[in-house]
């Protein structure tokens, strides 16, 4: 015996289901369109070169908190700053500083751009060189892609956070570097404009 379902009975159910989906789509934008909740962070400060820094002095940048922090065994930083033997600025992603025995590290990519700090309004999502030290110069804008699973591991909007920074002054005698930065602490969002990002 063959069972037949009257298509006329199914039609109202299908129309109702489509209406519900459409209503949810209008109300929420889309199912993965979770809005950002944290404002971008822009600040300036002074960091010490990794080699020769006083104990507890800031030598790195942490994207999620948007702060300059010590580079130590807690690995609560994304990039560290140093001066090499020639006085050149070297930026170290977290894994290049950590030992091979550490299991708490995450991948960080770096990318330089030719625009001014003010002109860089958002970060690209590709083109970064992961886990590789970068030699840079004063007033060159460097973009950071931090793939911190401890922060973004369960995020629906993306697995990376982004920041931009530039070193504005270098004192080779005191081994200090003045830095300005903007960090977007929202996973998957790329905006560097002030306020809570829209993208």
Q: Could you give a quick summary of the protein structure above?
A:
This protein has 199 residues and is an alpha+beta fold. The protein has helices spanning 7-28, 94-97, 149-152; strands at 41-48, 60-62, 67-69, 79-83, 89-93, 107-113, 129-130, 134-136, 141-147, 161-171, 176-184.
Question: How are the SSEs placed, and which strands pair?
Answer:
Elements: H1 7-28, E1 41-48, E2 60-62, E3 67-69, E4 79-83, E5 89-93, H2 94-97, E6 107-113, E7 129-130, E8 134-136, E9 141-147, H3 149-152, E10 161-171, E11 176-184
Antiparallel strand pairs: 1-11, 2-3, 2-4, 4-5, 5-8, 6-7, 6-9, 9-10, 10-11
Content-based structural category: alpha+beta
Number of DSSP-assigned strands: 11
How many individual helices? 3
Helix content: 10-25%
**Average pLDDT rating:** 86
For the termini, the CA-CA separation is 57 Å
Biggest sheet overview: 6 strands, antiparallel
Indicate the low-confidence ranges by residue numbers.
2-32
- Whole-number count of domains: 1
* Shape descriptor: globular
How large is the radius of gyration?
23 Å
Proportion of beta-strand residues: 25-35%
Strand order of the largest sheet: 1-11-10-9-6-7
Secondary-structure element series: HEEEEEHEEEEHEE
């Amino acid at each position: 015996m063959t069972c037949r379902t009257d298509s006329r009975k199914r039609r109202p159910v299908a129309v109702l289901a489509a209406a519900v989906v459409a209503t949810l789509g209008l109300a929420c934008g889309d199912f993965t369109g979770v809005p950002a909740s944290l404002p971008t962070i822009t600040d300036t400060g002074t960091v010490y070169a990794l080699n020769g820094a006083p104990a507890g002095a800031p030598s790195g940048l942490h994207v999620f908190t948007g702060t300059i922090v010590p580079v130590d065994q807690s690995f609560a930083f994304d990039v560290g700053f140093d001066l090499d033997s020639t006085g050149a600025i070297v930026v170290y992603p977290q894994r290049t500083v950590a030992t091979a025995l550490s299991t708490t590290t995450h991948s960080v990519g770096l990318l330089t751009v030719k625009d001014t700090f003010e002109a860089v309004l958002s970060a690209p999502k590709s083109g970064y060189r992961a886990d590789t030290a970068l030699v840079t110069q004063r007033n060159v804008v460097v973009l950071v892609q931090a793939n911190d699973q401890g922060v973004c591991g369960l995020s629906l909007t993306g697995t990376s956070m982004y920041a931009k920074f530039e070193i504005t002054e270098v004192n080779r005698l005191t081994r200090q570097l003045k830095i300005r930065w903007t960090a977007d602490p929202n996973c998957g969002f790329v905006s560097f404009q002030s306020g809570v990002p829209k993208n």
